[in-house]
Amino acid sequence: MRLRSALLCMLLLTAAAVTHFDSRFTQTRSLLGFSKPLVSHGVIRFDQAHGFYWEMTDPYHYVFQMKGDEAVQTLPDGSVKYLKAEQTPWLAAVQHIIVDALSGNRSELERYFSLKVTPMSQGEHVDLTPKSGAMREAIVSIEVTESAPGHPQKIAIRETSGDSMDISFTAPAP
Amino acid sequence: MRRPRSAAARWAVWSVSLGLLCAAAAWRLAPHPINTDMLAMLPAEQGTQALTAATDRSRDAFVRQVLVLVSGADDAATRAAATAALKSLDTAGLKTDDSGATMNGVLALYQEHHYSLLDPDEAARLATGGASAYAKDVAVNLASPVGLISSFETDPGGYLAGFLGSLPRPYGDFLPDGRFFSALKGEKRYYLLSLESPDTGFSAQSMQVTRAVQAAHAAATQACPACSFQATGAPLFADRARSEAQAETLWLSAASMLLIMVLIAYVFRSLAPHVLAALQLVASVLAACAAVIVCFGSIQILTLVFGTTLLGIAIDYALLYFAEYWFGDGDPTKVIRAVRPGLYMGLLTGVAAFAFLLLAGFPALLQIAVFSIAGLLEAALVVVLIFPVTLTARPTVKEHPAVRWPQAFIAAACRPSRWRMLLPAAALLLSIPGWCMLSESDDVRDLQQLPPELVQTDAAIRSTLDQVPPPGFFLVEGKDLDEALSREETLFAKLDAKLADATPLGLSRFLPSAQRQAASLAAWGKVFAQPAELRKALAQLGLPAELADHMQAGWQSAGHEPLSAADLFKAAPDLERFIIPESGGVALLSTVMGKSEFDAGALDATAAGVPGALFEAPLTRIAATFHRIRVRTTWLVVVGYLLISGLLVWRYGRREALRMLYTPLLALGITLGMLGWLGDPVNIFVVVALILILGLGRDYTVFLREGGARRRSPALAVTLSALTMLCSFGLLALSQVPALHVFGLATLAGILASYLSAPLSLPPEP
Hints:
The complex is a heterodimer of chains A (about 170) and B (about 775).
Chain A: E1 2-3, H1 5-15, E2 21-30, E3 38-47, E4 51-58, E5 62-67, E6 70-74, E7 80-83, H2 89-103, H3 107-112, E8 113-119, E9 124-130, H4 133-138, E10 139-148, E11 151-159, E12 164-169
Helix pairs in contact in A: 1-2
Chain B: H1 7-28, E1 34-35, H2 49-64, E2 65-72, H3 75-91, E3 95-96, H4 99-112, H5 120-143, E4 149-150, H6 159-165, E5 175-177, E6 180-185, E7 188-196, H7 202-223, E8 228-233, H8 234-268, H9 272-296, E9 299-300, H10 301-327, H11 335-355, H12 363-385, H13 387-390, H14 401-414, H15 419-437, H16 452-465, E10 473-478, H17 481-498, E11 503-505, H18 514-529, H19 531-540, H20 546-557, H21 565-571, E12 579-582, E13 585-593, H22 600-608, E14 613-616, H23 618-652, H24 654-678, H25 684-707, H26 712-728, H27 738-757
Parallel strand pairs in B: 1-9
Antiparallel strand pairs in B: 2-7, 2-8, 3-7, 5-6, 6-7, 10-13, 10-14, 11-13, 12-13
C-alpha cells in the first residue's frame, strides 16, 4: 500500500501550517524487490488564487492541476484528461484536503494522524503516527522537517510493506 | 324458519349469533390486529412473479429503513454520541447496515480477481495498445494524486483502485467508517447510521422503532449535549400517523357519541333510548370489526376510523323505531310492524350500495364494505329482535317543539309552491361553476397527513446526504444470471449516457458479466504476451525494466479465473438481495440514485430500449391503480343506482320512483359543486362519500314515503337521522387526515342537501 505522493505532500504541508507553497521536489521511492529506487523530479505549487499544481518533469512529464471543483491531468503522451469529482470518488477527498491546506486547517490531517510537533532552531519537526484504519495498515511513520518556519525541507515516509519514500524540496520553482 | 316469539328466545338468538361471529374473529385474529400500513391497502401487484417479488422487496426495504444522523463540531464527541446512539439502537434490536464491513470482506476477493475487473474502456485500450498503453497507465498512476491509497504491488496501473473507487456509494459523500458512514461537511462531522427495523409487523415495528430512536436520541444527547440528532424513515412516519389516527378516533367518537346522546336525551327524555342505542352501537361496531377480522385477519386503521362514522348509520334504524314508539300513533306492540317496511327498504338499499364496493377490487374499500354491511345488519337485527321485547310499556313523554317542527318543516315543504322548483334550480345553478372547478387526485401521498416536523427532518437529512430517494426500480430479466448481468450493464451504460447525474445501483456494479470479465482477462493476456515490449515501453518512460519482470511475475502467479457469483455472495451475502429468482430465469433488481429527482418517463424509456428490462415507479403505479379503481367504483355506483331504481319503480311505480330518485341526485350535484368551489379534489374517498349520500338520500325518501309524509314519527326519524349523521360523518371534516377530511366535508354537504331536499321527493299536497 502506498499513499499518493502529491496528495501526501498536501497533507503534510498542512501539518506545517503552510498556506502557500512553491518549490521543486525530488521524490525517491524505494520499492521492496527493486534493486534501484524510482527517482522523479518536478514542481509543486499551491496558493489560494491558483489552487493546486503538481508537475512531474522527469523521468516523464505529467501534470495534475486542481482549482475548485475542476481537475485536469496532462498525461505523458501530451493528452489531456478532465476529471469530475462525482465520477472519481477520491477526488472529493483530495478537494477537501486542498481546501483545508489553503486555509491552514490541520483538522483533516489530525483525523488520520496523531501529531507531535517539536520546535527546532529553524522551523519545526513534525512526527505523524497513523491513528487507525487503512492509513495505519499502510504507513509506519512520517516525518516532516522544516528548514525555516513555513518552509518544509524534507518528508520521509516508511510504509508497512517495507517500501519507503523521501521527498525533498530544494528551491522555488522558476 | 319460525320466528322466535319469546323475549328469552330473541335474546338468545341475538347473543349467540354475535357470540359466534366474535368467536370466529378471535380464532382468525392476527398477532397485530390493527394494521397502519397504508400500502397494504392497495391492490395486489398485477404482473409477473418477479415484478411482484421485486415490488415486495422494494416496499419492504422502504418501510423498514431508518436513517439516523448525528453531527457536531467536535469529531471525537460526535463519534462518541453516534456510538452511544448505535449501542442503544443495537439493544432495541435494530440491525445496522454493515456495508462497510461487507466491503472489507469483499476487498480480498476483488484483489484476487483484479485481472477480471477492467472496465470496458480500459480493456479495449489495453487490448488495442498492449504493453505501451499499460506502461503509460502505470506512469500516470505513479504520478497522479487521484486516489488516496492503492496497492502498487498488485495494481501498478491503478485499475483495481479505479474499480473499487467506482463501486456504488449508497450515501453520496458519506464513506464507510466502521459501523457508520461518515463525512466532514464544512465545520461539522457527520455520522450516519443506516438501520433496518425488525420484521415484527408494520404496527409493532413502527412503535418499536419510535421508542428505539427516542432512546438513541437520549443516549446521544447524554454523550454529547452539543451534538445534533436527526432521524427519518417510514416507521417513524407510520407511528406518528397511527398515534394521531388513534387520538383522532378517540375524540371524534367521543364527540359524536356525546352529541348524539344529548340529542336523544332532549327529544325522548328517557334513559331507555340511551341504553338501547348504546347496545345497538356496541353490537354493530363489534360485529363489524369481527366480520372484518374473520375476512381479513386484521383491520386497517382507516377502516376503524371510518367505522366510527358507522355510529351514525347504526343509530339510524334505532331512531326510526324510537320516533314511532314515543311519538307514533299506534300501540307499542305494533311499532315494529309500522317501521318494518321503511327499515327493510333502507337496509336493503344501504347494503346494496355497500355491496357494490365489494366489486371495486380495492382492499381498503373491501374492508369498509364488509365493516359497513356487517354493522348495518347487526344494527337492524338488534332493532328487530331486541327493541320489541324491551320497549313494551306505553311511553308518557308529551309532545314538545323539537318533536313538532320536523313534521311542520316536511309539511311546509310539501305544500305546492314555486319555491319547490326555484330553490333546487338556484342550488344547481350555483353548483355549475363548482363543477367546472372540480379537480381529481389519485396520488396516495395526498391522502395522508405527513407531520411537518418529520417532513422537515427528512428533507434536512436528504439534503445533508445530497440525495433524493429513487423514484422506482429497474427489473432486468434474463435466462440466467449472466444474461441478466449483461443486460443490466447495457442498461447502466445507457443511463450513464442519458442522465449525467444518475448513479445506477445494481449487482453488475459489483459483479461484471462473464463477457466483460473475459474481455478483461483477454486484454491482460495480450499485454503480457510480449514481455520484451513491456520492458521497452517502461524504459521509454524512464521506468526500470525490472518493473516489467515484477508485473509479469504477478500475472503468471495469479489465477485467471473470473470472479464467480457464488464467491461474491459468500463474501458479501447482502448482495444476493439484488437477485429475484423466477421460474425459467433470473431477474435483477436495481435502481438509480441521484442528487435531484429523475423523470420517471426518461427512466422508463431507457429501460424500454434494453431487452428484458423494465422500470417500475410504485407511486405512479399506485396512482394509476387508484384512478382505475375510482373510475370502476363510479361505474359500479351508477349500475347500483340503476338497480336500486328498478327496486323503487317496482315498489312505487315509475312516476313516484323518478321523483324519489331526483332528490339524491340533486344532493350529489350540490356536493360536487361545493367541493369544486372549495378546491377539494375528487378522490376515491369522495366517491365513497357520494355513495353514502345517494344511499342516505334514498333512505330519507323511503322513510317518508313508507311512514307517511304528514305523520309525526317519520319526519322526526328522518330529522334525527340527518342530525346524527351530521354529528358523526360531518365531524370527519375536522380530521387532520386529508382523506378523512374531504370525506367528511362531502358527507356534511351531502347529508344537509339530502335532508333539505327530501320533501321534494313527495308529491305536493295542499
